[in-house]
Amino acid sequence: MPVCSIVPPYLLRRLARLQDPPMLDAAGAARHALDHLERIHAQRRGLRGSVTPPLTRTTLTRTISDAEHGETLPGTTVRAEGQDPVADRAVDEAYDGLGHTADFYAQAYGRRSLDGDDLPLDATVHFGQQYDNAFWNGERMVFGDGDGDVFVSFTSALTVIAHELTHGVTQYSANLVYQGQSGALNESVSDVFGVLAEQWVRGQDAASADWLVGAGIFGPSIHGTALRSLAAPGTAFDDPALGKDPQPAHMDGYVETTEDSGGVHLNSGIPNHAFYLVATALGGNAWERAGRIWYDTLTSDRLPASADFARFAQETLDVAAERYGADGAEVRAVTDAWAGVGVTPAKTARAAEGTALE
Ligand SMILES: [Zn+2]
Q1: What is the largest CA-CA distance in the chain?
Q2: Which residues of the chain have pLDDT under 70?
Q3: Residue 346 resides in a domain
Q4: Cβ distance 239 to 254 under 8 Å?
Q5: Does this complex have an ipTM over 0.95?
């Protein structure tokens, strides 16, 4: 299980190289976040193969802890399930964000927490000094406070929280290998359900939603609206410090790279945009038909962990046909969407053996 962080390593690497005096703090914070990411990757590699036995639980159980700017997890418990808000925005935003995400999965898809079995939701806030990231470590959500210049908050965006928690849903369902195309699909479904959770909470339909992941996490000096855009991948930011959003929206722009686990945060733009095309073609609430097709594809055991884009596309078509009929608007929308991003659906299965997991 890799550590899935909201800020991709290539962005942190770029920030870490900044030399301008106003950005020196941010550069230091980015270097630290990178070092930390590498350390926890190494720790997780050591833990691989350990399995936590499933427990029987019945309700939503949230626990928010405060790392008090240290890097020891979990930190001190500051708000448990059912307790009143505390005078700390990060704590309350994390508490609410976990709750909204769990409610979204329960009410839209009948899923009981991330594992389908009421897994308690734990989070730690105020992790590290000016820590420039938020991540799901396989067991809990961890939020830094950001450096204050480039990144100002990670708890304020429900899309960030729901993105990270969806890595938990994926971990307990298709378990898509976090490398290459299956890794980009892992990232993409986190973006898809990240934006759907927010649309569901806001009551926004496909036409009125902004389709942005991480709106509000950048400081006011950054030229950018969010980390990623499903409506227009490659346009979320264009900034002297961050560079330009590098996501492709079509297979023509597919990025071959060994960085970022084979471009998992880059090529996710392609299936992201396919989902957007399905949702906007169908209209109405995106979490209903479009989201249901993606959810069933992810969770119904039909998708191999090593699935590539073509295989994922084929499964979404099969799901759409089974649920809504082969001649329905849904199959047409899904067919057109994959064609629109240059993916040809096929029952391919690339062997996972021999590929790196992180
Ligand atoms: Zn992610």
Answers
A1: 60
A2: 1-3, 40-58, 349-358
A3: no
A4: no
A5: yes
